[in-house]
Amino acid sequence: MELVNRQDPYLREVLRTAVCCRALTLLLQASLILSPRCCSAVFNLLIPDHAADAFSPPRLPEPGAWDVLAERLLGGLARWDAEHFLFIAERGYLYEHNCAFFPLYPLSLRAVAEGALWPLQPLLRLRSRLLLSAALLSALFSVLAAAALYELGCGVLRCRRVAFLAALLFCISPANVFMAAAYSESMFACLAFGAMWRLEKGQSWLSALLFALASGVRANGLVNAGFLLYSCTKRLAFHFQVGSGPGRKLSPLWRQLLSVVSSAVVTCAGICLPFVVFQYYAYVRFCGPGLELDVPKPLRQLALDKGYRLAATNGVKPTWCSQRFPVVYSYIQDVYWNVGFLRYFELRQVPNFLLALPVTLLGCWAAGTYVVANPRHCLTLGLERRKAEQEGKPRAGFCSPAVFVYVVHATALLLFGFFCMHVQVLTRFLASSSPVLYWFSAHLLQERELWLWTEGAAGQTVVPPPKGSALGASPGSCGPGAAANPLLRLLRSFPLLTPRSKCVLGYFLAYWLLGLALHCNFLPWT
User: Fold this and answer.
1) Which of 99, 152, 220, 455 sees the fewest Cβ atoms within 10 Å?
2) Does residue 490 contact residue 452 with C-beta atoms inside 8 Å?
3) pTM for the whole thing?
């Protein structure tokens, strides 16, 4: 991904922090496995390995000495759903429930394992090379996602300092372990934040391409089509408001509507295309004519023992094949994981709701703060051009007008995740999909810790918007100042922080470290 200004000291510090945090994460997860007398002894005594009833296919062929070493070093990255991604990358979509995991991330793992890591083939079997590929790709994507989030924040918040702090908070995200493991979160965050950033720069077609790639990584990428729809609608509304002044001449209404509708239809169709193609692939594989697959006996036995459905065997078709719209994804979520409206509202799920409580409170707080600060803007859906915007002096910070669509997006994801999903995944669901979690946390920290910046404690330098931006202007600069790392200053001064700042920063740190310890020991985490 192109970085706009490699000379930006803030951007360089974001990249440096992201690399250091990713290296520290990999080191800590390795220590949990390799040091039986040190770190892992403590974690394993307090939190012994959990005999999880998760997908765990047999290792074929038998691992060699170098494979065992790779597993010991990186095995903490291959827990829970990571097994699905690694299995798909190695064997393809062999079992029906594998189709809940979209193909772009496993394909990327396989490409790196067979390409860049091909020289290691004599030493490492495919599974080990895939695990190494996952560690490398997840680290790369999370670093690029931090950079994209910084650039996006500068464009939307119009305050380089808040954008800088938000990007640094992303480096210690509460979903940190999933950004490092063989999960698709880091890739999705990179593509989604990059697409949002490009849309802010007015590059709608490149943005649509990145959003389309994101929908090939995770199903909730489809929701991102709303950004393009809103951008088209806002551009049309602003066009008529600007053109209604004296001496201004409007082009015919039908021409404007046709342009907006055609652009919206094409871009949204492009975003939905990967999802549709993948559902068609699953239909052909599991509902088409029976094909005798060369499945190793241990994998067939696993299917019998666990009740997994193999692709196109014995001519027996799954029930979803006969539906009017045969969508395997919704079928798997319904049948295999009992995902649906209020289905998770059970007394035994209270611990999982408590696990999701911090991100739920932060999301609700962010939405409430924005609505209270911008009641008219919210009532008009941000489609009314403000006088300050016309004069080139829009409000800066989290409550700026351009943040509206992101708050709506985050709130929609929060409500859907809370009421319709396994609520414990809400943290990584929001942390990899929406910048609002990081923007609002940075807003809270800067608002209370006025000493944080050496130049003008809480100053926010507003920059006039450039021409051609879509959802909001993308400034070339958000203000001067040294790029000293505010995150390190906060950590060093933690005992002196206000209680609210301690809660925000403590949440990020606690979920980062605790999630790493629990996930690497195969214990349930977000």
Assistant:
1) 455
2) yes
3) 0.89
